[in-house]
Specification:
By secondary structure, the chain is mainly β. It contains no helices and five strands. The chain has a single domain, classed as SH3 type barrels (Roll), CATH 2.30.30.
């Protein structure tokens, strides 16, 4: 990620770019732009040895788009978060 996501305040406008690598070397790229509603780490139902509560935890960013839609984005190493 391009910036420490924890430092983004609720109400900040951000652009999130995510890439999904493909076997042939290409990437699918998607961008989402909106206002930060929350950022949190949430556990999933997946089991992960030696993690907190033996669960897999994901960074989740909640963003409100300009049309009012609320999007929850799971951040990973291919995610880039920028202040707009």
């Amino acid at each position: 990620m391009s910036q420490e996501i924890e430092s983004l305040a609720v109400g900040s406008r951000v652009r999130v770019t995510q890439q999904i690598p493909q076997r042939d070397g290409d990437c699918w790229v998607t961008e989402t732009e909106g206002v930060v509603e929350s950022f949190e780490q949430k556990k999933t139902g997946s089991w992960y040895a030696h993690a907190k509560d033996d669960r897999l935890w994901l960074d989740r960013l909640t963003v409100r788009l300009d049309d009012g839609e609320v999007v929850v984005i799971n951040l990973d190493r291919y995610s880039k978060v920028e202040l707009v």
